[in-house]
Amino acid sequence: MSRLKSKLGRLALALMVAGVAGKAQCQQDAQPQYQVEKIANQVADWQLQHLDNFDYIPSFHKQTYNTWGWVHAAFYVGLNRWADTTQNGALYRDILHWADDTNHFLLGPRAYHADDYAVGQVYTDLYLSGRAGEQAILASKNLLTHIAEAKPNVDLAFNSDALGEQELRLCQLRWCWSDALFMASAVWIDIAHITGNDEIFEFFNHEFWAATDYLFNEKTGFYFRDSRFIGKKGDFGEDVHWGRGNGWVFAAMVDILEGLDGLPNNHKDKYEALFKRMAKGLVKTQREDGFWAASLMAPEQTSKELSGTAFFLYGLVWGVDNGLLDAATYNPIIDKAWQAMKNSVRDDGSLTWVQQIGFGPESVVEDSTQLYGTGAVLLAASELYKRCQSQPANNQLDYCSAPD
């Protein structure tokens, strides 16, 4: 089912969702059926109860507190998919409260910077599923139409390492860093469908492949995070491919592949080939403990890392269950990654082993979490849950087993 059809198909349910917004508890009257359901509910609940004070996050507090910023966007993307998958009305209300009452469906201030319109992909989902009116998409529609008409054509090389974290590097008028493909893809695909404006998708398609041609390493099947890493070697002589930086792209591929149907000249076969190439690279780089590392090409020499691992798990499950990846090859990889993810969730639902905000591989400590890590886990849990529901035989799988 396409991304658009899936959203429209939830309209009847969404129209029944009503009530006072507030901090949602995932636990419903019915007990969770599956191990993955119990864990994902705990993860979502813990994060929702820890959005007012980020003392547990050691750095980049300003970015974390920005409710319209990419950090919150990544969390709510995962929460929204989990709510859709489990048809959780309480979570729907919480998401709408954030988008409407808190953010007023607004985007960030840096008009061309993909990080600052990443929230738009949640807003478009609210509109397409009937949970919000046209006001939810106005800012995104107007901005993306403007960008597509302006067609920025700056060089994709990072122009300075000296700028502050909140300053706009010239190349970030375009998608010159791998994270941007996650931040941008879903909202561009959705607005292309909503408006019927072919120029929207034509711009997206051109810019996606411009970034890919520049950053993708055919030899490894992975993206360099940005131009600063092209040709750079790590401490062990390896190409430096950031785990989460590639996790962003692999997760974005799900949105893209779900959304291409119905768009003109969509080059779906080309996107599918890229997805399969990345998946092939993941087979070779998974650690023995089921994680992928902060630096993909040094899996046993660098820290294990949860957010990238969860993004990869999400894409792999989706790929197998949508017929793009071979089950015999990838299900053992999926099983190991599930164990890694499960073991990273504490009893209270908080996460461990999440690399903090950065732009490349760094050391990761156990006592480390962030909102985007929660979002990634909820994305992965959504696809595992669908697998559990698809046929009774799947109950033999650990994540589909009855919760403790």
Automatic annotation (TrEMBL):
Q: Which domain of life is it from?
A: Bacteria
What residue range is the signal peptide?
1-26
Q: Name a Pfam family for this protein.
A: Glyco_hydro_88
UniProt keyword annotations, A-Z = Hydrolase, Signal
InterPro entries assigned:
6-hairpin_glycosidase_sf, 6hp_glycosidase-like_sf, Glyco_hydro_88, PolySaccharide_Degr_Enz
Query: What biological-process GO terms show up in the record?
Result: carbohydrate metabolic process
Q: Could you cite one Gene Ontology molecular function of this protein? A: hydrolase activity
Instruction: Specify whether Hydrolase is a keyword of the entry.
Output: yes
What protein am I looking at?
Glycoside hydrolase family 88 protein
